[in-house]
Amino acid sequence: MGDIIIIGVAVLLALSLWAAFSIWRGGSGEQGLSARIYIDGELISSIDMPDEEQELRLEVASGYNLLSIGPQGARIIESDCRNQDCVHIGPQSRPGSVIACLPHRLLILIDGGKEAELDAITR
């Protein structure tokens, strides 16, 4: 009987921690998020985060970027820039997150949902 109580308490503790972490991270899927796409500092599009993955090819004079937007956030999945930093940054889904491709002068800002939280504080 004691083993069942210990297992029950452990399960309740695990569920409580999971729920607290989900609330702290903003839940499973932010509502009202959008991706604002800037090229050369000019807003060219604002796209609401869709429920299913979508791809958008962004053409600039010096090349292209392939943007994927879906429930996991926005990310560059392909680019013909030399350093590929924009591809390696991965999906961004928190308000205030930024994806940048400097060679193509492309900037994608994640906006909406809950207010942006601090990632870190530096001096």
Describe what you observe in this structure.
The strands form 2 sheets. Strands 2-1-7-6 form a 4-stranded antiparallel sheet, with no helix packed on it. Strands 3-4-5 form a 3-stranded antiparallel sheet. It is α+β, with helices and mostly antiparallel strands and 123 residues long. It contains 2 helices and 7 strands, in the order αβββββαββ. It has 2 domains: 1-29; 33-112, N-utilization substance G protein NusG, insert domain (mini-chromosome maintenance (MCM) complex, domain 2, Sandwich). The mean pLDDT is 83. Helices cover 23% and strands 38% of the residues. It has helices at 2-25, 85-88; strands at 33-39, 42-48, 54-60, 63-70, 73-79, 98-101, 106-112. Strand 4 and strand 5 form a beta hairpin.
CATH homologous superfamily name of the largest domain? Answer: N-utilization substance G protein NusG, insert domain
Number of strands: 7
Assign a percent range to the helix content: 10-25%
What is the radius of gyration?
A: 19 Å
CATH class of the largest domain: Mainly Beta
How does the helix and strand content classify structurally? alpha+beta
Low-confidence parts: none
CATH topology of the largest domain: mini-chromosome maintenance (MCM) complex, domain 2
Q: What fraction of residues sit in β-strands?
A: 35-45%
**How many structural domains in the coordinates?**
2
- Helix tally equals 2
CATH architecture of the largest domain: Sandwich
